[in-house]
Amino acid sequence: MKSAHQARIDEKKTALELNIESREKVFDSLKGNKFTLLKAESKLTNKQKLKLDKIREASPLLGIMHSLKEEFRDLFDKSEDSGTGILGLLDWLAKAEPYYQKSVKTIKRWFGEVAGYFERKTTNGVVEGINNKLKLIKRAGVWMREIFVILKLELYFLGIIILS
Fold this sequence. Notes:
Elements lengths: L3 H13 L3 H11 L3 H5 L7 H13 L1 H19 L3 H15 L4 H9 L1 H10 L4 H33 L7
Helix pairs in contact: 1-2, 1-5, 2-4, 4-5, 5-6, 6-8
């Protein structure tokens, strides 16, 4: 998948091949603007909107990718029913495939689950959060077991306990 972040990096690499004046224009537009690209366009300040316009002018590819990201966000925020939501998602997938190949492939693989959002307006975010916390506890448990082994060995070498 070519994410907006990766596209930003690619644009910097491409800028290195340009003449100095063009290079400065692209670098200046990208420098420090990661969150301008990631943030919802409706929540941008006037200053951030000007930065976004500068980015779009310097890098048409990032402009297209940002527009697709906003369209995707609006699709989920503004769809009234499951029919229009699913049709809109199918249209978006067709438009986005040249730019977001891996994301489109993943959405197609999980299409039933993704389309389910339009019916119930619910996500599995809570379940994913719980799974993440369980994995974190599990990882922490590995370290705890090692700490207990080290303590047990130290107590053994100090002659406080006898290992059986």
